[in-house]
Write a structure and sequence with these properties.
heterodimer, A: 628 residues, alpha/beta, Rossmann fold, five-stranded parallel beta sheet, 20 helices, globular, B: 198 residues, Pyruvate-ferredoxin Oxidoreductase, domain 3, six-stranded mixed beta sheet
């Protein structure tokens, strides 16, 4: 049935037709009607939420896309600045279900502070951008964007401007069905952003961009049949005057040259990034002059100037750098590397580095780990044990909680190191505060899992509070674990609002995390000592059996800011079972063998006497000094 | 680039061994005698038991804080495996100061990676002519704490002559950088380190 749809409504209907399952957003003109329309036409199986802000929305959408659902986050261009943290990171991590970031730009500006142009942001973030020029084209473009996102494992920005968002057209609306069940989250180290992984991702993204630019040169408008071919770029006519345009300006150009089409060649850019270079070159070589019409920044104009330079100057052999593959696309440079590249290009003999060895014996793999005695180890281990006990109880029919899997969403801080073996307790990590909101997205995509979010005390204050408000407001089902070690440990023990001291040295009233949670409306709040294993495990098990937003505050100070206890000792009764080593992986626990007897000893230089290992030991042979 | 004018020292080890303080002390000693200094250190998450590297360069004109491979006058390895991993930084004929006590990573305790520090020590001795092994156990026993190791290696650095720094110049840096109650014990460690190179 044909309906008169506003551009934003057409995008909403297109997203529903594409099977979107989780939609989050924050209102802002001219973007808001997309989310409202999806809510209004929801066939029942789509989770739609106004998130507490754009950052939270983007993280909820990312979590859902990790689980394999198609997801969308909507915002205006100013909101993209708020969401910049997760948006910049999520492309490095990648996604499984298609993820569309819808951003409405506002030329004029009509109802914004600035004329910010999202096409630059896509380029900056290395995220492909689809542009919209009419409601019917936008209806198709959003569907193409989902396909493209899923096929390439990358989030995609869909951009429209006010006159497309708020103009209407008659559109044949398809029957909207419920989205398919999503496959669910599959654990993999790729979901945890780490510098090493990011380096590889950067190289992959950079290499992919050239391929995408070629693909976009062949992603062309085809108007012969229904909406299917409407989304793409276009090169029309063969007149000597070239006109390049994109978005609503394409409509203005069409109207202006109506009846004189034979004098013009029109290039419409529907995929501003990666720029369809070969299509643009074909256009440039066939015309005498080029006029560029676009609102906001001269984005297409600059891209054409670049391509024109490429043609006339044969720039590929003239300006050498990352684009030509001469300089590495990612990673650090060094004086040695610079001299080597200069030698290759200029035929000089500068090379300043020598002394490479290729016969070095096997070296240790030494990933960073939580310090000996770090209370985070106890927190992670308690959650791990609690989940295992629940699964065992369920299997044995002893009132165990019913869930398919437990997912552990990490965050930025020392506790990201909880991902290392043997804890293996960080399944996702994206950006500051995202653990709390990614957990919500995972839950909305697949309600059969139990989702934990781990955040530190300083991170909670920095960007966890909004995500927690979002969870309470949008009826999420999750367990928030706050690892409160009374400092900002990772960056060097800076004070934060919970500590009662400022950088001016003033004593102030500490902001109480428990009261903040209470104030937000979290009904279930427990505070435990993570170095007391049984107490912590019982608290986690009780929380697993509840519904809604539950919080557990694991409170114990960072070992770097308190005086250490005497190191503990392993008694002669040690049977060498290695349970302590294999379960908690404390660096102070050292396996050793003497006279053919395998035992564990404690490195007294590292042990701070936290006592966690003694609670894991099955024969009770580890003790503190006083127990000897 | 005139190598004589810039002296470079690479320190490597495991987070927590004190490489950052050692590089700051070397830089402070150089600045005390009117030289310029640049350093670059591993800070942050990698410090938590991970591999760490500090570059220290002193002289009159220092183009970059990062030492190119094969350009370090002296390599200080706080741990044998880490020293082997960074051997390519040491210039031909340069000095290696080596603490031969291995630090097993958690991955080794878990059986995920095999690692034998003595193999790395043998390898380094076979490759480097000027290799000075620090008597770690003796220094720990005499000073009563492992926390002076980073100053002991600076003593060996002075004795090697590679950086043109004297024990007395480092003494002044210690007085500037350390809490008063720690100065004496560190001066002792400095001298014990220097003795290792004789």
């Amino acid at each position: 049935m044909k309906e008169l749809l506003m551009g934003n409504e057409a995008i909403a209907v297109g997203a529903l037709a594409a099977g979107v399952k989780v939609v989050a957003g924050y209102p802002g003109t001219p973007s808001s009607e997309v989310l409202e329309t999806i809510a209004k036409r929801n066939p029942g199986g789509v989770h739609v939420e106004w998130s507490v802000n754009e950052k939270a929305g983007a993280e909820v959408a990312a979590g859902a896309a990790y689980a394999g659902a198609r997801s969308m986050v909507t915002m205006k261009q100013m909101g993209l600045n708020v969401a910049a943290d997760p948006v910049m990171c999520v492309n490095y991590v990648g996604i499984r279900g298609g993820m569309v970031i819808y951003v409405a730009d506002d030329p004029g500006p009509i109802s914004s502070q600035t004329e910010q142009d999202t096409r630059h942001f896509g380029k900056y973030a290395h995220i492909p951008v689809f542009d919209c020029d009419t409601p019917e084209q936008a209806f198709q473009a959003v569907q193409d964007a989902f396909e493209f996102s899923e096929a390439n494992g990358t989030p995609v920005i869909l951009r429209a401007t006010t006159r497309v968002c708020h103009s209407c057209a008659d559109i044949e609306v398809p029957e909207i069905k419920n989205p398919p069940e999503c496959e669910g989250f599959v654990k993999d180290s790729k979901w945890v952003i780490f510098p090493r992984l990011s380096h590889q991702a950067k190289l992959k993204i950079f290499a992919r961009e050239a391929e995408l630019a070629d693909a976009f040169s062949e992603y062309l408008t085809d108007t012969r049949d229904s909406y299917k071919g409407l989304g793409g770029n276009a090169l029309e006519g063969n007149g000597s005057v070239g006109i390049a345009c994109g978005g609503i300006s394409y409509a203005y150009v069409k109207e202006a040259i109506a009846g004189h089409e034979e004098d013009f060649t029109v290039l419409k850019i529907a995929t501003p990034y990666p720029f369809p270079a070969s299509l643009a070159r074909q256009f440039l070589m066939g015309v005498d002059k080029v006029l560029v019409f676009e609102e906001l920044d001269p984005y297409i104009e600059d891209a054409l100037i670049y391509e024109y330079g490429n043609i006339s100057l044969d720039i590929d052999d003239f300006i050498l750098g990352k684009r030509t593959g001469t300089v590495p696309a990612g990673g650090e440079l060094s004086a040695g590397l610079v001299s080597k590249i200069i030698d290759e290009v200029a035929g000089t003999n500068l090379s300043i580095e020598c002394c490479e060895y290729d016969d070095i014996p096997d070296l240790p793999v030494r990933p960073p780990v939580l310090c000996a005695g770090c209370p985070h180890r106890g927190s992670f281990y308690a959650v791990k044990v609690a989940v295992a006990e629940e699964q065992k109880a369920a299997k044995e029919g002893k009132n165990g909680a019913d869930f398919t899997q437990a997912i552990y969403c990490g965050d930025i801080g020392c506790y990201t190191l909880g991902n290392a073996a043997p804890l293996d307790m960080v399944d996702t990590c994206l950006c500051m505060g995202a653990g709390i909101t990614v957990a919500q997205g995972l839950g909305h995509a697949d309600g059969r899992t139990v989702n934990f979010a781990f955040t530190g005390d300083s991170t909670f204050f920095a960007s966890g509070i909004t995500g927690t408000v979002n969870a309470v407001y949008n009826q999420s089902d999750m367990i928030l674990c706050i690892l409160d070690n009374s400092t900002t440990a990772m960056t060097g023990h800076q004070p934060h609002p919970g500590m009662g001291i400022t950088m001016m040295g003033e004593r102030v009233e500490p902001v109480d995390i428990g009261k903040v949670l209470e104030g937000i409306g979290v009904k279930s709040i427990r505070t435990v000592d993570p170095l007391n294993l049984r107490e912590s495990v019982d608290a986690v098990r009780a929380a697993i059996h509840e519904k809604g937003v539950r919080a557990i505050i694991f409170k114990s100070p960072c070992i770097a800011i308190v005086s250490h206890g005497a190191p503990w000792q392993v008694g002669e009764a040690c049977v060498g079972c290695m349970r302590c080593v294999n379960e908690i992986g404390c660096p102070a626990l050292i396996p050793h063998e003497e006279n053919g007897k395998k035992q564990v000893k404690i490195d007294t230089g590292l042990c701070v006497g936290c006592g966690l290992c003694a609670q894991v030991c099955p024969v009770g042979c580890i003790g503190g000094k006083s127990d000897d | 680039m005139t190598d004589q004018k810039v002296k470079s020292c690479l320190l490597c080890g495991v987070g927590g061994q004190g490489t950052v303080l050692a590089s700051r002390i070397i830089a402070a000693a150089a600045m005390e005698k009117g030289l310029r200094a640049r350093t670059a250190e591993t800070i942050g998450m990698a410090q938590r038991g991970g591999s760490v590297v500090s570059h220290v360069r002193i002289g009159e004109e220092i183009p970059s804080p990062m030492i190119p491979r094969g350009k370090a006058d002296i390599l200080i390895g706080f741990e044998p495996g880490e020293a082997a991993a960074n051997l390519s930084y040491l210039k031909e004929g340069g000095t290696l100061i080596l603490c031969d006590r291995e630090v097993k990573p958690v991955t080794a305790a878990l059986g995920q990676s095999g690692y034998d520090g003595s193999e790395a020590v043998q390898y380094l001795k076979s490759k480097v002519g000027k290799c000075c092994v620090i008597d770690v156990d003796h220094i720990f026993a005499e000073c009563g704490t492992p926390k002076v190791l980073n100053v002991a290696v600076v003593g060996a650095l002075c004795a090697s002559g590679e950086m043109d720094l004297t024990i007395e110049e480092v003494d002044r840096a210690l007085e500037l950088k350390m809490k008063p109650k720690l100065i004496d014990i560190n001066k002792k460690a400095l001298r014990m380190g220097a003795e290792c190179i004789k």
